[in-house]
């Protein structure tokens, strides 16, 4: 049996039966409910807080209750756990109300009055650029861009934009905390138990051995439960310590949308130099990402954005400049693709629009520029592995009948193609810094995986157990995962960056191979492994030179759409995706990631309009913010071509984030093809199309 | 304060209505969301609730003397399955909310909620629907456009209940419905258009056009319609620009979280044009 | 307000505020936590239960509406023959990822098949359109419903 052959998901049955325990399903003895009192101003000084008389058993928790440092620890720890003298966005947490019933807590929080003095606020990327409110700024280059521009036969300048996106994990954010024997236990929905533990050690000013973070069944995350849960974990832990009660903090959907992180909106400016043969020889890319009110992990989002900005192409001369800007809006954060879908959208559409404007076939034009094995990446790191993008393209063309369809074009119907990649694992030297650790424990004829990488819907439990079971020739039932409790498992790193299968799975595979050779030992034993970065990879984090990623996964999407000539409603009829993810550990689980990613990407590109007006989100509930339903998703066809990666388990590379970058440019190219107009901004809405068409007329 | 009343009969309900300032609630799909306060709290209603959804008197669908009578507590999903309900109306109802919500929401609720985006309303306006309002002593029958006085506003008196929705049983050979939503499934309406017509030998015998979601209430102009009845469908096509100009002052949409005023206006004109073109083809319906 | 209704086949009498949401009654008063809250406004379908055999959003139902109704939650449905078929079909098709939407989808699928035992693909899409899933892109959920129809021949 090959590893790729699908097995039943290990957690499906209990989820179907409704027996899986999400945080909101847990119960505690005499819990207090928490409610967060939030800023109603985009930027203001807090002058005074008027509190009502508190009934017996109710509490108000503010910054003074924080035992340690009042900052949520992440890449840049600038977000106060509870506001100090100033608030920087609508929705920023100021106080917590705790009480024995939700009704009491609600009544108290309704009576709290806060006096503010409004301060000047910046709401848009453009304003922020004008005022130079830069959080972080990076640049790098390749070749001799200035000379290349001077020699270019043609120069094209263009600008692309992408909008806010909300994760809409079906389970809203939630956390609970209790103190038992001087140890603080925090339970909740999260991707990164050790991020939460780190944040708690700092906020509580206590050592990690007095803190236990336990992940509960997590109802979707998509990056939205990467860093944000650290904030509410701190809220619950501080409240549990202050009140001496177990506390619950479960967000309603509206609250979740208003205050949780979003995908960074972006503006990406290009200047391309072409030679006489219509080849792009030089590209200048200027990326502006809206980080929102606090910096948080925006620097690393921007890094992935700039290192992905050349997408699958080899531009010989290059200038890349990226900046994160502050606006007084809800902070942006991690979201599937982590900065890459924005820059890949921009670059794919730039290539498409250049080709169309020159009367060239977009696919042929793109293929002239693609990276090959041995080429330098945008940061000069050699592409070590075989690049099978041409095979992926051929397969996608065959499966979708693209050639036929692009030639027999009908009015108001279009087809578009996108090529894309995803850098596997952490950016730059991230994996070396975090040094993921795993433990594999043999106990009689059973094996336990001890890892902090979580199951959040993506299938990690099934896939990681399968890697070990397959290596040891054991039935999957004999291989289980330890609860993700920071007191019980080592830090295998956060469940992010599409690193779980390749990096953590790779460590488990190595350990399982070793366990196999020792299987007949009489005593139970443990094997632990720590990540070691392959020696041939280089990275200089000051100059951004070398291998920004150990390897890449690749994909091709073909989208077919129709447009209603009366309403300009866009209907995505079909998306075909062909991918190189090394090798599938479980084909159905992988297909599930690709199909879900296509739906989420297509949603971002068309339906998911989210705007903020003077710092306030216009669409802040699921009535107004629209994600695709079963009637909106296209028919999806996926296929995979094996291209095993030497350093991945069974040849596996990264997968989960890859599809997020593919659907948007394919869908938008198809819309552009249908109407014969260039498109440079997502979401593409009927409103936008009607406006553009009227201008064309 | 009494939190709620659950009468057994309509007359009992009307008696409560007469004696108490209360809020009638049928399916609750709008009210429960409008007044929601979050998990575990229950919505915050300012008045006692008067449950009426279960009253058998309000659940009938029947044909009498050239009219279809629909009880206001009839569920949207029941409309879809009843042979007395015109197909073109079913098309509008089938695109409302979602299957689980349609198993709760009622026709009377959609009318009394009086949202400019209420999807049953354009058809009811176009079909000359009338409403029966009753209090403990009297009843009055009025046209739907007289009942809905503004966004979320109706002429219902504090002692009244909506007790019947009355639609003339007419057969329109040409029907047209289009809903412009935010997406295909489970979507609120940005703009909608319901057109009904009767065409004989190339001449317009009857014509009704109603626009939803593009003004404080549904837009239907009998004056404009009357000016077009008797014309040939060919001439209507040529007068398209003129017809648009007649509707122009009536269609006054807004910018909101779901769309823009400009788009809504343009899409209305496109739907109108499409409908007029459709008349030329003479028969059948379109969605 | 005193309310008598049938919950998973048993008659229950409760005394609650008439506006209390069925969702809260199920999750908090009866600890039936297979019913999930994803939005509280009828938009996500995670709280779908059956009322007199039809899918409804339990977040939109005030207690006062419940009198005399029969409510079936995933807890009451999972051991029935049709519940078992749907369970196997959802597993086999790969229709489950994060699982938060799944019990609601199972109930929506039951309601759909009750009404129409042989839906077309378009009818399956329409029938499930009140339930959001953000993980799967829905394809495997459609497949699961088709599989359940095959496996459960004659059951609906």
CATH class category name of the largest domain in chain C: Mainly Alpha
Structural class of chain C, by secondary structure, is alpha+beta
CATH topology of the largest domain in chain B: Uridine Diphospho-n-acetylenolpyruvylglucosamine Reductase, domain 3
Q: Give the uncertain stretches of chain C in residue-range form.
A: none
**What's the order of the H and E elements of chain B?**
EHEHEEEHHHHHEEHEEEEEEHHHHE
Number of helices of chain C: 6
Query: How is the main sheet of chain B built?
Result: 5 strands, antiparallel
Taken as a percent bin, the fraction of beta residues of chain C is 5-15%
Number of strands of chain B: 14
Identify the CATH homologous superfamily of the largest domain in chain C.
Answer: [2Fe-2S]-binding domain
Indicate the percent of residues in helices of chain B: 25-40%
- Specify the overall morphology of chain C: globular
Number of domain units of chain C: 2
Strand arrangement across the biggest beta sheet of chain C: 2-1-5-3-4
N-to-C CA distance of chain C: 37 Å
CATH architecture of the largest domain in chain B: 2-Layer Sandwich
Structure description:
The complex is a heterotrimer of chains A (697), B (287) and C (156). Chain A has 3 domains: 23-120 and 167-259, Aldehyde oxidase/xanthine dehydrogenase, molybdopterin binding domain (Aldehyde Oxidoreductase, domain 4, 2-Layer Sandwich); 266-427 and 545-696, Aldehyde oxidase/xanthine dehydrogenase, molybdopterin binding domain (Aldehyde Oxidoreductase, domain 4), CATH 3.30.365; 430-530, Aldehyde Oxidoreductase, domain 4 (2-Layer Sandwich). Chain A is 29% helix and 25% strand. Chain A contains 18 helices and 27 strands. Chain A has a 7-stranded mixed sheet. The longest helix of chain A has 19 residues, at 587-605. Chain A is globular, with a radius of gyration of 25 Å. Chain A starts with 11 loop residues before the first helix and ends with a helix. The mean pLDDT of chain A is 97. Chain B has 287 residues and is an alpha+beta fold. Chain B folds into 2 domains: 4-168, Uridine Diphospho-n-acetylenolpyruvylglucosamine Reductase, domain 3, CATH 3.30.465; 174-286, Enolase-like, domain 1 (2-Layer Sandwich), CATH 3.30.390. The model of chain B has no long low-confidence stretch (mean pLDDT 95). Chain C is of the alpha+beta class. Chain C folds into 2 domains: 2-74, Ubiquitin-like (UB roll) (Roll); 78-151, [2Fe-2S]-binding domain (DNA polymerase, domain 1, Orthogonal Bundle). In chain C, a hairpin with a 2-residue loop joins strand 1 and strand 2. In chain C, helix 3 (81-93) crosses helix 6. The longest helix of chain C has 14 residues, at 102-115. The mean pLDDT of chain C is 97. Chains A and C meet through helix 1 and helix 16 of A and helix 3, helix 4, helix 5 and helix 6 of C.
